[in-house]
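Morning F.,

Quick status update on the modeling queue. The single chain you submitted on Monday has been processed. Sequence for confirmation:
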Amino acid sequence: MSARSTANFLTVMLMIMSAVWLMLGYLEPAVSREARNMVGYTNVSLSLGTVFFFWMAKREARTKPDNDAK
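Structure tokens below.
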């Protein structure tokens, strides 16, 4: 799995977890503070992972077509 596809996967997971975090915010009386904090910390971890893998993808060597094959 390339760094670019890993970064894209983490971005999608971050969007899903952000939606969950917002829903937990609306359900505030029924949801414990610990549960909301756990999802918040997960979002921070996903954000850091996404930034790291996009940085890795930027540094990843571009493959050039093989011109020797004729």
